[in-house]
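[Automated response] Your request has been received and processed.

Submitted sequence:
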Amino acid sequence: MKILIAGDSMAMGEWNPVWQGPENQILHKGLEQYLLDEGHDVINESRPGDSLKKIFLSLQEHKQIFDYVFVFVVEPNNAIDDDKFWNTEYTYEDYYDRHKEAIRYFVQCLYTLNIGPIKLIGGSAKCLDEYIKGTDIEIAIPSIIELLIPNIEQYDMAFSYHLKYIDNKVPANVVDKVYEQAQIFDELFKNTIMYPDGKHPNREGHYKIYQVLKDKYLHA
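Generated structure:
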């Protein structure tokens, strides 16, 4: 089968915890490698830090039809500049609505592409059923974090890039909720499935992702 993968660093495999240059930053290609080992023809467009917009643009470049397109959904907050992120009028729910609206828009953009069946994988952002309404796009794995770490619930959204820039006029109850989310994030990434680097699923985690996708789509 011809398979296209897109996402950020989570979709690239197991990362080397010690930076030694671009030629050996990845210790194992994860999902991509397991698909290659099964004899599939795989293109992986994932890049570190890619935003929803960059992912869409990379997919838009492809003119051929793939048997499957696996898209890791990333946290939209990471693409918002620090000076535009905080709004002193916002409630916590406003931040969450902005997060969800960005992903809904991303999915609607994906729906315009003619590159084959698109299957979403919840990466740094969890996939909710509301995101795919009105499309034929399917959620393959709502949350790889919840898949890999049993009996937990993923954070609503990640604020890791913006915590040190919180405006002192942001209401205290919003700040409290934001830090609660940040603590959930930090605790999840202490799990051994996120090592050796503590930021990405390792090859064992990617094998579990691969098994789910194989059972759903690649078993024939």
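Summary generated for your ticket: The two ends are 10 Å apart (CA to CA). The first helix runs from residue 31 to 37.
If you did not submit this request, please reply to this message.
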